[in-house]
Write a structure and sequence with these properties.
alpha/beta, 6-stranded mixed sheet, globular, 23% strand, 10 helices, 3-stranded antiparallel sheet, Rossmann fold
């Protein structure tokens, strides 16, 4: 983490409401995302964490009522999806076109943002599929999303999200639809890719146990408000807010959680 540097993303007084302004999803959020850090946003369903991720990516629906600001101080203008940030959704079908081969989808991102020709784009796409540990990447290039499991599709979606080497990777509940073992594999994968490429990570999850192992800092959201923000170890071990303590109580003890005891979670070669 580049301490002292200007924020990559600066969120100032952000409020978001839906349904004509009668349903507040976020209320007066102030938060910096630092260059190179891994920030986790946690909370239960309806806490506003996914709304925050969508606001950062400028993906909120036109009907949303927005006040405050989401700024990218290091950029000369508005961020461009794919180039400045990559987004991994909970459901890989939201990221992958079901009627287009996986390789072409990734190659199109590369051609658009890196200005490479098709042969070079396909070559880079194959390298990316190998990096996310999909077997036989040369065959995956020509395969369709429905031919793979949920975990494999999510790996392909991650490859597409990092295809143009974005500064920020946003993973919005990217493991929630997967079983426990596959979740652990995806977390290890994200951790390795972020470290290798020097990306900043925004990891959105309801799972404080996963977040505490992946993130440098954790922000806890409840009913659209940020109720706690701090170092990941501190938030997980000595939470200040009662809601954070309730989230921890809903999990197996952090000292006995099998997932957190898996040594491979910190293995950069995963």
């Amino acid at each position: 983490m580049k301490l002292g540097a200007q924020p990559l993303v600066a969120i100032r007084g952000l409020s978001v409401a839906y349904h004509g302004g009668n349903n507040a999803a976020l209320t007066n959020i102030d938060l910096d995302i630092r260059p190179g850090e891994r920030l986790a946003i946690i909370g239960e369903s309806g806490s506003g964490k996914s709304t925050l991720a969508l606001a950062i990516a400028s993906l909120l629906p036109a009907s949303a009522k927005i006040s405050g600001a989401v700024e990218w101080p290091a950029l000369p203008g508005p961020p461009l999806g794919g180039r400045d940030f990559g987004f991994v959704f909970q459901d890989s079908s939201a990221s992958l076109d079901p009627v287009m081969p996986i390789g072409k989808q990734i190659a199109e991102v590369i051609r658009t943002h890196l200005r490479l020709g098709w042969p070079q784009a396909y070559s880079r796409a194959q390298d990316l599929l190998a990096r996310v540990r999909l077997p036989h990447p040369e065959a995956v290039l020509h395969a369709y999303p429905h031919q793979f499991s949920g975990g494999q599709r999510q790996r392909a979606a991650i490859a597409a999200a990092i295809a143009a080497a974005p500064r920020l990777l946003i993973a919005d509940e990217a493991t929630s639809a997967l079983d426990t073992l596959v979740q652990a594999d995806i977390v290890r994968l994200v951790r390795r890719l972020v470290a290798e490429d020097g990306m900043t990570l925004l990891f959105v999850s309801h799972d404080i146990a996963l977040a505490s192992q992946l993130a440098d800092r954790i922000a806890v959201f409840r009913h659209g408000e940020m109720v706690e923000l701090g170092d990941a170890a501190q938030v997980a071990r000595q939470p200040r807010h009662a809601y954070t303590r309730a989230l921890l109580a809903a999990h197996i003890s952090l000292d006995t959680e099998p997932l957190l005891k898996r040594p491979a979670l910190g293995n950069a070669n995963a």
